[in-house]
């Protein structure tokens, strides 16, 4: 992986009326990365994608795609997979490919040759005559991926491409992304799934239009300022019992366990023991654990600024 920047934002801001979607964003994405945009709904992820492609322009600052301020021109060397499946449901897989190939200005023979290669890679060549509307959710996303790769891009942007897709199809989709990345394709993806975020070379946390942190998983976790206790209990209302007690910064449920965020492990243990004693409940085992990306996501998503 080189240090060449293929997508950059310099003090970029964007507002929609009174709502500020991006606030002074600075970011450089390097060639060869799989870069992840992470943040809650409304954080600004789609705005960053649309700005990268030249669909919208910043109100202040700048954004460059493949080194160009004219991102619409640079888009000829970029691919895009939108959040919602937006291909033609009453057209076959191949008819969709031919339509988008013509929009890219490619000759019919060139489209056919590229289509066979890409559809074979994503496992859809045998379904080329099936209506897009009759494909499964995972197959629809593979078709959207094939369309995004039709012009042999240098960078591919994907906006929450696997939302609503079953876990097996998500794994297959990401296996394809890794294959194309290993062949030199730079990938930028927004995702609500932390297991997918783990697969990204680097990632950023975005909330309320502001980048809160950028780095590898190890770098992000190393900057997490709190400690965590894992607490597994069947008792009801534990979150309310602990809320506001000394050294309990936050409490979040992960499956059957609580992750207790604390600024002092021993102080938190004492607060937890006191809460359970007050409610006549047996004190469950407590375990000191390391933070994960989900813990960081919850922490960042809860910040007002």
TrEMBL record:
Keyword Transmembrane appears in the UniProt entry: no
InterPro entries (UniProt xref): AAA+_ATPase, ABC_transporter-like_ATP-bd, ABC_transporter-like_CS, P-loop_NTPase
Chain ranges of the ABC transporter domain: 7-233
Family matches, as SMART domains: AAA
Single GO molecular function: ATP hydrolysis activity
Keywords: ATP-binding, Nucleotide-binding
Gene3D superfamilies referenced in this protein's UniProt entry, alphabetically: P-loop containing nucleotide triphosphate hydrolases
Protein name per Swiss-Prot or TrEMBL: Multidrug ABC transporter ATPase
């Amino acid at each position: 992986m080189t240090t060449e920047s293929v997508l950059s934002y310099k003090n970029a801001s964007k507002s929609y009326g009174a709502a500020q979607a991006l606030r002074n964003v600075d970011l450089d994405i390097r060639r060869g990365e799989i870069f992840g945009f992470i943040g809650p709904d409304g954080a600004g992820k789609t705005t960053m994608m649309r700005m990268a492609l030249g669909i919208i322009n910043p109100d202040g600052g700048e954004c460059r795609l493949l080194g160009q301020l004219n991102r619409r021109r640079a888009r000829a060397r970029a691919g895009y997979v939108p959040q919602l499946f937006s291909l033609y449901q009453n057209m076959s897989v191949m008819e969709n490919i031919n339509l988008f190939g013509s929009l890219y200005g490619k000759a019919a023979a060139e489209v056919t040759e590229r289509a066979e290669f890409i559809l074979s890679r994503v496992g859809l060549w045998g379904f080329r005559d099936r209506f897009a509307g009759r494909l499964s959710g995972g197959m629809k996303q593979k078709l959207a991926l094939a369309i995004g790769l039709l012009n042999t891009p240098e960078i591919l942007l994907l906006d929450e491409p696997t939302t609503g897709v079953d876990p097996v199809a998500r794994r297959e989709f990401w296996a394809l992304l890794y294959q194309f990345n290993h062949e030199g394709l730079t990938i930028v993806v927004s995702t609500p799934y932390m297991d997918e975020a783990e697969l990204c070379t680097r990632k950023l946390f975005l909330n309320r239009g502001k980048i809160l942190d950028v780095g590898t998983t190890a770098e992000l976790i190393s900057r997490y300022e709190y400690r965590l206790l894992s607490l597994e209990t069947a008792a009801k209302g534990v979150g309310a019992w602990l809320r506001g007690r000394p050294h309990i910064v936050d409490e979040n449920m992960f499956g059957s366990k609580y992750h207790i965020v604390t600024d002092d492990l021993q102080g938190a243990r004492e607060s937890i023991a006191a809460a359970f004693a007050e409610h006549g409940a047996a004190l469950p085992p407590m375990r000191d654990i390391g933070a994960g990306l989900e813990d960081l996501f919850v922490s960042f998503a809860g910040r007002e600024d």
